[in-house]
Specification:
Elements (H helix, E strand, L loop, with lengths): L1 H10 L10 H21 L3 H25 L7 H12 L7 H18 L9 H12 L11 H4 L4 H7 L9 H12 L11 H6 L11 H12 L7 H17 L13 H6 L3 H8 L10 H19 L7 H35 L1
Helix pairs in contact: 2-4, 2-11, 3-4, 3-5, 4-5, 4-6, 5-6, 6-16, 11-14, 12-14, 12-15, 15-16
């Protein structure tokens, strides 16, 4: 009888969670970032490891100072520590470590003081990355793709052949297997080097490197929350379509011949879609608003980053989208007020 009562109580629980809480999402993001951090250690990218550690320390110092001033519970600053990791992932390994710490500390502390978590309108890590770009622009790489390659059909293959993107020893066997036993069914094939590009681009900026890990991270983050996946999915789709149709054409090349692979696997496009686009308060609330936001982001990414290999294009894309979000949120408020007034009139 007692077991039946316990079973009945468990079945009548009034709370049903359709998606992860913000706390759960934060822990997921932290674990997924640590996996990419481990990949940096395994690949002996110690310069990038140190940059990420110093950006994290800068965020920790900002949170600690804010706590000393306000006595606010420290767990409320936990999100800022995650933002500190994001900053490090978007800075090149050659960036001076004192500058990494100082820029991260100053911007995130000012964000805590003047913006506050409940009144966000801009992504703090993106703002810090752009400030760091102005402070140390000489340490950021330039566009890898040249003007001559912009008019070609597959610049990614040319960059792989020239050694810009490395080819790992396992690439050939995996490529041959896929072409022989899987892709041959569809009468298509992939060039050697694509698997390496998917695994590690060896870019100077860590967020641009491990695309396969980022794809798996996207699945983990959005598998049980389709609403959170709306903006990233539309952003990537619109950007890919624009690149495919217009990228070479804009420079005198052929229409519908853009290199989507290069666009998605460089510039931190997938990392941005998975981790950076949906900071609380910087995106619309409604489904229609999210769709419009994703479209705007995809268009901006195309006009700013082009066919890829941009060192800072995705950061500018998000910052400008944050401004557009203010307009979208204002329109949402007007629309909600109309529904509220209409509902009140019906009740009367």
């Amino acid at each position: 009888m007692k077991e039946d009562n316990i079973k009945l109580l468990s079945n009548t629980n009034p709370y049903i969670y359709l998606c992860d809480s913000m706390t759960t999402m934060t822990y997921k993001i932290l674990i997924l970032l640590l996996i990419q951090f481990t990949a940096l250690l395994v690949s002996k990218s110690y310069d990038s490891v140190l940059v990420i550690l110093f950006s994290f320390l800068g965020a920790l110092a900002a949170s600690g100072l804010y706590y000393l001033i306000t006595k606010e519970n420290f767990y409320k600053s936990f999100d800022i520590l995650i933002q500190g990791l994001f900053i490090g992932f978007f800075l090149p390994g050659s960036f001076p470590l004192p500058a990494v710490f100082f820029v991260t500390f100053v911007i995130l502390f000012m964000f805590k003081v003047y913006v506050r978590n409940s009144n966000n309108w801009v992504n703090p890590s993106i703002l810090t990355i752009i400030v760091a770009y102005f402070v140390g622009k000489i340490y950021f790489p330039g566009f890898t793709i040249s003007f001559d390659l912009l008019t070609t059909k597959n610049p990614s293959v040319a960059l792989i052949s020239s050694g810009t993107f490395p080819i790992f020893s396992f690439d050939s066997s995996i490529t041959n297997f896929l072409n022989t036993y899987v892709l041959s069914i569809f009468k298509v094939s992939i060039p050697e080097g694509l698997i390496s590009l998917l695994w590690d681009t060896n870019a100077a900026i860590p967020a641009f490197r491990f695309n396969l890990l980022t794809i798996l991270s996207t699945v983990v983050l959005f598998c049980n929350n389709y609403v959170m996946g709306i903006i990233p999915m539309i952003f990537v789709t619109v950007y890919a379509v624009m690149v495919r149709l217009f990228a070479p054409f804009c420079y005198g090349g052929t229409f519908n011949s853009g290199d989507v692979i290069l666009a998605l696997l460089s510039s931190g496009t997938l990392f941005t879609a998975a981790f950076m686009m949906q900071y609380p308060g910087t995106i619309p609330i409604s489904i229609n608003g999210k769709i419009i936001y994703g479209i705007i982001a995809g268009l901006l990414a195309f006009f700013i980053s082009g066919e890829g290999t941009s060192p800072i294009g995705m950061a500018y894309t998000i910052l400008i989208c944050n401004v557009f979000n203010l307009i979208l949120r204002y329109l949402e408020d007007i629309n909600n007020e109309k529904f509220r007034l209409a509902g009140a009139q019906e009740q009367n």
